[in-house]
Amino acid sequence: MRTLRQLSWFFKAHWKRYAFGIAFLFLIDILVLLPPRLIGNTVDSIRNSTLTGTELTKTVFILLGLGVLLYGMRYMWRYLLNGGALILEKTLRERLFSHLTRMTPSFYNRKRSGDLMAVATNDIPNIEQTASTGVLTLVDSLFMTLLTLVVMLTAIDWKLTLAALIPMPFLAWSTAYYGRLLHERFYLAQEAFGEMNDHVQQAVSGVRVLRAFVQEKADVEAYRRVSEKTLERNVSVSRIDALFEPTIAIIIGFSFLIGLGYGTYLVITSAISLGDLVAFNLYLGLLIWPMFAFGWLVNVLQRGGASMKRLSELFVEEPDVAEQEHPVTSVVSNTVEARHFSFTYPGTDKPALRDVTFTLREGETLGIVGRTGSGKSTLCRSLLHQYQMEAGSLFIGGVPIESMSLTALREKIGYVPQEHLLFSRSIAANVAFGKPGATKEELLNALKLAEMGSDLLQFRDGVETMVGEKGVTLSGGQKQRISIARALLLNADILILDDSLSAVDARTEESILRHLRQERAGKTTIITAHRLSAVQHAQLILVLDEGKIIERGTHEELMQINGWYAEQFRRQQMEQDVAG
Q1: Whole-prediction pTM value?
Q2: pLDDT at 543
């Protein structure tokens, strides 16, 4: 019942649909009580030799009319209740997807992709079943049972009715016991399904790595173990699930046995008529569905409850970064400033950035270099406000980024991350991802600026070439350049290139940087790189080491300092000369 209470918001929003659906159920339950009484009266008329052709014809036509009426009503309640449940499923999917798009990187660091997929594909349909089958069985089984018992007690014989109900307490106990076991086992089964999903997702994404290291057999064996675990947990659910129907059938069988035996005795003693006994057994037959429905209800509610618990665990998660009540939605200036900025990733103790201070004026380029793990990408992500941080330490246009609307902040910044994610669409669709209404001329110009013009000539379909999942059909350099083109198409006020030129050769890199200087004159650019030639033209270069700035200045100033930057630059120049 807790699951239904948790869905009360939906039932309130669609109360008319459910009210009419339940009303049709009530009418059906009332009307199905008429045929047993009519048949019982007909049996008594036959036994007393008082049945006439007119009465028989009238009874037959009444039964036919009831059949047609019940057919129409059953169609209506199915349309209303099942249709409402499908609306719930659609609503939950939209809410889940919207919720996932709001979550910050730390959430995805904690959650596995397989579990999130399992919630969307398995758990939400289970909740939908609760809103359709669960509501049906709850209302129909309770109302039908009570109505039938009232008729049996008042219109047939109360002693016979009570005798037939003797086995029913065993039904209540067994379904409650099975329901508790089912809830526990189904929750574990869904967790195992999530693990299996996660394994498949990783195997498919990393299939080239698996083949490169000849680990296909090992991965197949690992998948076999995961799938066997999923199978075992689902079999344990099925074992409990399989007990419901036989238990209910045995208990109902005892009720029929008592009803038939004791009822025959009452007929012999003339306490009830033969027609009453026939009607009683037909009424008892009507209780078969509510009894099975009750067991089914427990099954559905427990499955729905376990799924609702998993979904609720996601919905209670809140983004680490929350907007202020009245955020700034517009910033004119494109200056970027850090004032003694320090940052530590959630769940860690060691600071990723320590006391970082710099000022980047509008239209300037900032270069950020340093060893691997020195904090370059962390600084870029911090400017996007992906994590909660100390207030009053990062500014854009003189406004603290925590005071800015997240939408306004991210619209102001074009970002090309290290991981170049391309979708399984055409090159044009990938480039226009942030600007769906872009013209073909704009797309081609962005690709030209990213030095993809000559590559397009090699593709049979040009910009309409499908790139495959995650750009599998493209080289690393092509994926990087398409990602750069996607950011350039937005023409954002601030552009961040996070080591986005690592997979292109030096000549292509030089061309892209030249295009950037020409096209982005007067706009702010931030570039992180391992190859120092990518930041040589920057007005300010920061050298990071273990999250701290150890050197700063222009290229010429850093060469005069003769520190880490100068040493790395000379080494890279020598390597380039040797390679040339």
Answers
A1: 0.69
A2: 93
